[in-house]
Design brief:
51% of the residues lie in helices and 18% in strands. The protein is an alpha+beta fold. The radius of gyration is 18 Å and the shape is globular.
Length: 210
């Protein structure tokens, strides 16, 4: 698995124009780990989040599939971590959820030395790579978490497809719409997606024909 994750991180740096470094980090049963990284700096910045108990890995990524900070100079969600990142020359970041199950979470975090580095096209690429990493990681975890993680991604994909068809928008716009709903209602993204899928395809009990 580590080789696969290293390859995914390498692809992220290659395919996303302004991504300069990245890491895959986890919190599992209280143990905080950097599973893979492209540089000492990326690993250091993830560890700083653990040390400060502040940053996207420990907050938003538990509830949202994607978290973006366009300008860490003015980032108010995690002021201490943002300041530490800027001191290291990092100006923006994007964090992608790999899985979230209770207190356990996995994240792919990309860092850039430029502001507003992660545009909608970059997010689409990052989501695809995160999905690949998620499957690689969840496959070696217990079966129940593997199934739950894949089911969550499947529900979000169904909801995105419904929005795209109904409102004639692309995948990025559909995902942004889901994220906006999640943030406005303070409800996890997968719960928003599930409610949309349930509303469009309600489950009804079967009636006996005998």
């Amino acid at each position: 698995m580590p080789k696969t994750l290293d390859e995914i991180l390498s692809s992220a740096i290659t395919l996303i124009d302004h991504a300069d470094s990245g890491a895959i980090a986890t919190v599992d049963k209280g143990t905080r780990t950097i599973v893979a990284s492209t540089s000492d700096l990326a690993e250091k910045l993830c560890r700083r989040q653990y040390e400060m108990s502040e940053g996207p890995i420990l907050s938003e990524v538990r509830h949202l599939d994607v978290v973006v900070a366009d300008d860490l100079d003015v980032e108010a969600r995690w002021p201490h971590f943002a300041s530490a990142a800027v001191d290291e020359g990092i100006r923006s970041l994007a964090a992608f959820q790999l899985y979230s199950n209770g207190d356990d979470v996995g994240a792919l975090v990309l860092f850039s030395t430029t502001t507003q580095a992660f545009d909608p096209d970059a997010i689409v690429v990052g989501e695809a790579l995160a999905a690949h990493a998620a499957i690689a990681m969840l496959a070696v975890r217990d079966g129940e978490q593997f199934r739950a993680g894949l089911a969550s991604r499947d529900i979000i994909g169904q909801a995105k497809g419904m929005i795209m068809e109904r409102y004639d928008v692309d995948a990025v716009q559909a995902f942004d719409w889901l994220v906006t709903l999640s943030q406005q209602q303070n409800i996890p993204l997968r719960a928003i997606a599930q409610s949309l899928v349930d509303a469009d395809h309600p489950t009804t009990p079967r009636t006996s024909t005998t």
